[in-house]
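>> received
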Amino acid sequence: MRKPIIAGNWKMNKTAKEAVELIEALKPLVAKAKPEVVVCVPYTDLWAVADAIKGSKIRLGAENVAWADKGAFTGEISAEMLKEIGVEYVIIGHSERRQYFGETDASVNARTKQALANGLKPIVCVGETLEEREKNKTNRVLKKQVLEGLAGITDFTDVVIAYEPVWAIGTGKTATAEDANKTIGFIRRTIKANFGEDVAKALRIQYGGSMNPKNVKELMAERNIDGGLIGGASLKAEDFACIVNYKD
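>> returned
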């Protein structure tokens, strides 16, 4: 059985002080959580959150990682720097990184390999735009993102994939549970065909398109959905806890 993983993506929100306040409110609410609970926070919050989550069930994640060990890469943060703080997970290839900062499948692949080489667990994001969806290109787009983003990887033990339909991020729209399961099933079949049945069975795939307290139970009831990558709802302790503590 794949252990569900619920990860919050805070994006560019919360000062260090606000981050600690949110964590302190969240800790007692998820103390008995069954899924793995992760908060992926801005770089400036990492030290404060690392300290605040000590002794809790919450694990620490970053929102990106550089593809290089070190060097003249202004604005980038290396895997070594993240490991020193206590980061365990890292989001790679989020649609906002692709849309606003020029991320490509090739750079996603390089960052993913760098994360794995340094003992970080990558949450690799894939997803189609509304235009691609309406032109029936979803499967073609996802296959390309999966195969190019994961090219050359042989050990998938620590890899998580997040399917985040771009048209559902921050819009309040969400795929139906049936549609989300069907699309994630396609991703899993793509993994099976190219990386093997054992990898496909073990790999955790999250849904990342506006999962919230109202739809989490329905989404998580689907057999291919192993968790969620949560945006806005992760910024409120009660909402995030409701998602984490969903009932089967």
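>> The mean pLDDT is 95.
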